[in-house]
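A.,

Following up on our hallway conversation. Structure tokens first:
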């Protein structure tokens, strides 16, 4: 039985801001190329429908979700699991040539759902749809440059938005920008930020020493308290979090020690990275927030996979750091090799991030393959690491939900600061 995976991939505008996310799932494209295609498609759709029923009301809320629907998913009325403002119904050629499928698509469009066409072509069956669709998606790797230019011109002349997909190289990224596409999608796009938000001096900040200290197997609370107390902005923000409505304590935390005890080491570890990042980026560039969430997501995913991976030479805490630090070359204006030389990380972690060597390198490759929806690599790497492939999607979305919840808590705390609350006096900020 083939594995089923579901991945959430960002779609960005030319400025780097998130337009939405595509929900990619393994199985639907193979449904028409195997024996008994209807039974295979139904089985695949049933798995996807069951997953979305459990998760669409939480993890997939709050974003514009682009999702490809097969005939079976349309017949199951799967789009109705989503609010009209949060879903774009994507259709492939297999749906366009199926009269029953198009009946459902047109019905959902009348109800107010947006529609997108994948792999758009200048063919009569595609052109006939133009009045009914909102987004045109073009594959940069299979569409000639002249055709892409013409498709985008037609889309814009009819007030449609055009998204160029499968961008995996810098050249393809620059080409999509030059063509003035409304949206960009692909592995390369997901990694891009408009600027690096920190100088190399950021490596010496309390943030990195704190990350290392708190992710040890047996964290030293006294060391953590001392490091926070040395940084006024971290001290202030920690006290803000500890006294936020989320924790709802009767007595306010007025010292670093009290704040640490209020949050607990588990919550504190998750907050330190996000808080220090938000403090250090006073005016966040476009896409920075999503990228920081991506760093946190990688850390959580790596750590959770350690519960299943066999014969790993690192601890879950080190796996957490590996995921977190994998994005540093995008956040800090320096090569990753140089950045890691400044940080006290294990050699096997350093080799994994810079050379993809060893079993840690395999874990890192699994993370990257999952983000890129590289189905064959996901299955092969999971098997090599001893990770049951059927648990990957649930682990991935559980991590994503935790990241989203924590980010919302951070955002609400930051909003309180913007409204003019004053920092605590020096006497309150560091025992």
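Then the amino acids I'd put at each of the 431 positions:
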């Amino acid at each position: 039985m083939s594995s089923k995976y579901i991945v959430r991939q960002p779609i960005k505008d030319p400025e780097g801001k998130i337009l939405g996310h595509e929900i990619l799932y393994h199985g639907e494209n193979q449904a028409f190329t195997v024996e008994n295609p209807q039974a295979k498609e139904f089985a695949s759709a049933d798995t996807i429908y069951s997953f979305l029923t459990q998760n669409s009301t939480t993890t997939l809320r709050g974003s514009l979700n682009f999702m490809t629907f097969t005939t079976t998913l349309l017949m199951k009325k799967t789009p109705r699991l989503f609010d009209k403002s949060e879903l774009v119904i994507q259709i492939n050629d297999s749906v366009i040539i199926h009269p029953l499928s198009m009946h459902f698509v047109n019905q959902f469009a009348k109800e107010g759902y947006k529609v997108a066409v994948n792999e758009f072509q200048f063919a009569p069956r595609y052109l006939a749809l133009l009045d009914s669709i909102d987004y045109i998606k073009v594959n940069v790797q299979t569409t000639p440059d002249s055709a892409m230019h013409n498709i985008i011109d037609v889309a814009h002349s009819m007030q449609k938005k055009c998204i160029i997909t499968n961008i995996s190289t810098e050249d393809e990224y620059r080409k999509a920008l030059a063509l003035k596409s409304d949206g960009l999608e692909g592995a390369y796009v997901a990694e891009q930020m408009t600027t690096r938000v920190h100088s190399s001096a950021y490596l010496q900040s309390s943030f990195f020493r704190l990350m290392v200290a708190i992710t040890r197997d047996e964290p030293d609370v006294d060391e953590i308290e001392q490091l926070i107390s040395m940084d006024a902005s971290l001290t202030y923000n920690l006290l803000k979090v500890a006294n936020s409505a989320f924790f709802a304590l009767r007595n306010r935390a007025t010292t670093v020690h009290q704040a640490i005890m209020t949050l607990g080491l588990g919550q504190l570890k998750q907050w330190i990275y996000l808080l220090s990042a938000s403090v250090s980026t006073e005016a966040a560039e476009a896409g920075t927030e999503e990228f920081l969430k991506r760093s946190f997501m990688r850390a959580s995913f790596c750590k959770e996979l350690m519960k299943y991976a066999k014969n790993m030479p690192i601890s879950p805490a080190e796996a957490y750091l590996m995921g977190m630090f994998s994005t540093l070359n995008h956040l800090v204006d320096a090569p990753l090799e140089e950045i890691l030389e400044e940080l006290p990380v294990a050699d096997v972690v350093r080799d994994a991030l810079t050379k993809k060597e060893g079993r840690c390198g395999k874990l890192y490759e699994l993370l990257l393959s999952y983000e890129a929806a590289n189905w064959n690599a996901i299955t092969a790497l999971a098997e090599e690491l001893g990770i049951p492939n059927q648990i990957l999607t649930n682990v991935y979305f559980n991590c994503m939900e935790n990241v989203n919840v924590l980010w919302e808590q951070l955002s609400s705390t930051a909003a309180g600061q913007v409204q003019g609350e004053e920092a605590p006096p020096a006497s309150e900020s560091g025992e």
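The longest helix spans residues 392-418. Curious whether your intuition agrees with the design.

B.
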